[in-house]
Write a structure and sequence with these properties.
heterodimer, A: 345 residues, mainly beta, Porin, two-stranded antiparallel ribbon, B: 183 residues, alpha+beta, Alpha-D-Glucose-1,6-Bisphosphate, Chain A, domain 4, six-stranded antiparallel β-sheet, 4 helices, elongated
Chain lengths: 345, 183
């Protein structure tokens, strides 16, 4: 009889464990922890750091990008995101040193959001910028090095924004922000940001962005992601930026700032492998001569589960001799190779 | 004999063989379907179905005892922490006829998710795929998801059966104290 009881107890015990495991899977909207780790090797054929990319800057070195840790949760109508980063990419290369002791706060995103109605959401805090195609996180970009448009645009915008879902396909964001990339705004004026988004079909997203402020200048930006077939994708970014000598809400000077366009055709050749080109034409406007750069970046994305390997070749050609060659002479072109690995979790 | 049955019960329990499996319609699509005879009246079944299906803000309607609503479950990767892998949409249909009803749970479509530039996870809409294609893949993650999905569907079915069996009781007025002369 004792054996019967023992077996019954065992059955009950294992049933209890199974029940708890099932309950665990049913948990609604738990705290989400995600992020990434990236590392790279770069070789510039001039023998020195040459191309002005935001990340992947260190020549002939096995270097690190960043450790990115993101906590987020959505419960009911409320949500938060806390996104911290450690490493060159996530500190000095993308964040201003905010404190007197030259420490950044490591914060890429720190905001709360509340859904006021089915069509309106309010978000407040420090957020990755809504402007531009490329982002700081290496998991959000196809290429490992970055475009000039990315490097010269805003990285983060702290502020308060309202998102309006005007229809299933059209959205509008209006916000009031600190000057670019500032945890704390010391100026009295604020930037105004507007984004009009349009999604005519699944896989097609078009954004028209504008951010303007007396101190920050004015940037107009078009960003689009177009999945044109199952295997072919085209990204588009075009932007213009200007800043007046005198502070004005709208900055229209044509002898400052920049203008540029970048195209990102990408093709999937298998489930785990894609090839892509970034072509960028970028002009830095000046009071006398403008500086024009054409940049060609060929990248592969080879995935093995959460790990993506990115081999990359990049050639930049400038209208003036702004690069150096292997003899340390000024030249108009620069060529580099990058091999990067990005792990996403 | 009894000992043998007990051993079998423990064996099935330990190895999870009582876990339900995906069911497929004639076109090979995943579908859960059952006709249930009830002792309740047609009106009572309609009333129960309305209460069960109408609170949903999503799609819902009632045409001749036909109710339908959309539902969704989020599937997580569980490694260091939990991060969303994607969302599974499906529809729940409930039909009442005479003294019986039937449920049909179908149209399982999986949307993978990725982090957007603000650190939030969002659907990759153009990468939607039918669930049957995903569970056909020899993938450890999808084996975990399969259990999550089946558990969720079991709970949905259990809830339908429980709510459809509810008998409406007429609220009886509390009787006041009556002072009777004949005491």
């Amino acid at each position: 009889m004792k054996k019967y009881y023992t077996l019954l107890l065992m059955a009950t015990f294992f049933s209890f464990i199974e029940l708890n495991a099932q309950d665990d899977t049913e948990e609604e909207n738990p705290l989400t922890i995600s992020g990434s780790v990236d590392t790279y090797y770069k070789y510039d054929f001039s023998g020195d750091e040459n191309i002005g990319t935001s990340f992947a800057s260190e020549h002939n070195s096995f270097s690190i990008g960043m450790l990115n840790l993101i906590a987020s949760q959505e419960i009911g109508k409320a949500a938060f995101v806390g996104d911290i980063s450690f490493g060159p990419r996530g500190q000095s290369q993308s964040l201003l040193n905010a404190g007197a002791d030259d420490n950044s706060f490591h914060i890429q995103n720190l905001y709360v959001a509340y859904q006021l109605s089915e069509k309106v959401t309010v978000t407040g805090g420090y957020m990755g910028t809504f402007v531009g195609y490329e982002v700081i996180s290496p998991t959000g970009n196809f290429n490992y090095s970055t475009s000039y448009l990315f490097t010269n645009g805003p990285f983060q915008n702290a502020g308060l924004k309202f998102d309006f879902a005007l229809s299933d396909k059209v959205g509008l964001m209006v916000g009031l922000f600190n000057d670019w990339n500032e945890y704390q705004d010391f100026s009295s004026s604020k930037d105004v940001g507007i984004q009009l988004s349009f999604s005519p079909a699944d896989g097609m997203d078009i954004y028209l962005n504008m951010i303007t402020g007396e101190n920050s200048g004015t940037e107009f930006d078009l960003t689009a992601g177009l999945q044109l077939s199952e295997s072919f994708y085209l990204g588009v970014n075009a932007a213009t930026y200007g800043a007046n000598e005198e502070a004005k809400l709208f900055n229209t000077a044509d002898d400052t700032g920049f203008v540029g366009v970048a195209l990102y055709p990408q093709i999937s050749i298998s489930e785990s492998t894609s090839l892509g080109l970034r072509y960028e034409n970028f002009t830095a406007r000046g009071t006398e001569d403008d500086l024009n750069i054409n940049a060609f970046t060929f990248s592969g994305n080879i995935s093995a589960g959460p790990l993506t390997f990115i081999p990359e070749l990049r050639y930049d050609s400038a209208s003036e001799d702004i690069f150096t060659d292997s003899d340390n002479e000024l030249t108009g072109g620069a060529f580099q190779f990058v091999a990067a690995a990005v792990y996403s979790f | 004999m009894r000992f043998g049955l007990l051993i079998m019960a423990v064996f099935f329990d330990l190895f999870g063989l009582k876990q339900s499996e995906f069911k497929y319609d004639e076109n090979g699509h995943i579908l859960f379907y059952e006709v249930i005879e009830s002792e309740l009246s047609h009106a009572q079944l309609i009333d129960n179905a309305q209460k069960l299906m109408l609170p949903s803000k999503k799609m819902s309607n009632n045409r001749n005892g036909h109710f339908e609503k959309a539902s969704s479950i989020r599937l997580y990767r569980k490694s260091l922490g939990k991060s969303p892998h994607g969302e599974l949409d499906f529809s729940i249909m409930l039909e009442v006829k005479d003294n019986r009803y039937r449920y049909i749970i179908k149209d399982f479509v999986f949307y993978p998710m990725k982090r957007n530039r603000y650190g939030k996870f969002e659907r990759i809409k153009h990468k939607a795929s039918l669930l049957k294609e995903k569970v056909a893949e020899p993938d450890k993650l999808w084996t975990q998801h399969k259990n999550t999905i089946l558990t969720k569907v079991d709970k949905v079915i259990e809830n339908i059966k429980r709510e459809m069996a509810v008998i409406k009781h007429e609220e009886s007025k509390p009787e006041g104290i009556k002072i009777n002369d004949d005491w």
